[in-house]
Amino acid sequence: MLNIAFKYLLGLAFAAAGANHFVMTEFYLRMMPPYLPWHLLLVYLSGVIEFSLGVALLLPRFTRVAAWGMIALCVAVFPANLHMALHAELFPQFSEAALWWRLPGQLVIVFWAWWMTRFEKSGG
Known about the structure:
- The protein has 124 residues and is mainly α.
- It has one domain.
- Helices cover 77% and strands 0% of the residues.
- The protein is built from five helices and no strands.
- It has helices at residues 2-23, 25-31, 39-57, 63-86, 96-119.
- The longest helix is centred in the middle third of the chain and has 24 residues, at 63-86.
């Protein structure tokens, strides 16, 4: 039962965060490291992927592959989160400590998603 609650919490959090890329686009654009190209495209693309993975996690047939996708997405967006921590002045609404704590916080999300791969079988 707890697994189901954690599954829905993670799925809904990812879906909401993905949708937020379209609501608070300027915020996500500030997260983009300058060395990456096509900032707007990457913000929208990551939003679509994040939303899709959140929904897919809730579908038993896709739970496992969605969880692995979440892990991959966390790795892919790590440079943006690191950019936030290194450039705290761009995010005055957050403390510098909070921005640095987001980085190990991503490990919690990675573990959480990995945990979801242990309890669901795809293709079922």
